[in-house]
């Protein structure tokens, strides 16, 4: 008992908090966030009382490229830090996700531009209210937020119908308020591009101009939901990496929303990434995280490990894997990839580094006059 009391006194005197206290009290010698073994060499002197603790190791950046949480916040009137979400603040933290792409999705039956505004306003209000989240507009800002222990929020528009009549002007206005990703279509074709949902065609003249403007602004182009023809055309025309934020491999599950090998190679050739979607109909049987790993393996075989990322689609009314209810348990996927022989570096790529590399390249390709 005296050992336990002494440990907690030591915690108080040094200003330590969180899991290090539990380790000291239990007599465990393993540092927080490791699985045993000797602690890492200190990179700086230990903090004195009153100074913040410095992380012993760099923070691992983990990104989810597609979360429909704004829709649930508005539809159900839920706070980001409240109950009832699949990718709320608690679930994101529990699963290690510290970079969350929050999607502005105007349904087909909605007043598109007004609905987009309502979703954006709701997320802006949450950003102002919560100290634990912050809007980020670059990989540098994302890394800074993660180092500070906050969840970086990225705004994405799912479907350019959200800027239907305002077009390039509308994109510029959204970008000025923090929009970083643009999905050209949703499940129906629009004035800019064809959709996989209705077997649409390629880019229209307005769509080609929108692609060029996104490149100029440094907005990431997202071809999930786009038709095969539009996907290949965007990859050909864009001078920056192109992503598919939440799509799987058509070779494993022949669904219209999934990407065939030619599209996978085209996205990889731009330096882009493909986020694994965890919707069970896109994964195919048996609809488990192991099946998601099968898709990761296929993407790696076709496009290289650098093309693989994560875009779960949680809070988007998906049918999740049988062994994963929300984002809190996503760590099981990393363990499955490691079991299959993926290297630590490759897994870090899937977790977020691949996307950050692509995002950096998108920003590097923008015009000098862009903010």
Which blocks of ≥5 consecutive residues have pLDDT under 50?
1-56
Note the main sheet. 7 strands, parallel
Structural class by secondary-structure content = alpha/beta
Ends apart, CA distance between termini: 60 Å
CATH superfamily of the largest domain: Metal-dependent hydrolases
How many domains is the backbone divided into? 2
Strand content is: 5-15%
CATH topology of the largest domain: TIM Barrel
Task: Provide a descriptive summary of the structure in words.
The protein has helices at residues 2-14, 19-26, 69-75, 89-95, 112-129, 139-147, 167-176, 205-217, 228-237, 261-269, 280-283, 289-303, 331-339, 344-364; strands at residues 63-67, 99-104, 133-135, 151-158, 179-183, 220-222, 242-243, 274-276, 308-310. It is of the alpha/beta class and 371 residues long. The chain folds into two domains: 1-31 and 47-54, no CATH class; 63-364, Metal-dependent hydrolases (TIM Barrel, Alpha-Beta Barrel). Helix 12 (289-303) packs across helix 13 (331-339). The longest helix is centred in the C-terminal third of the chain and has 21 residues, at 344-364. The radius of gyration is 21 Å and the shape is globular. It starts with a helix and ends in a 7-residue tail after the last helix.
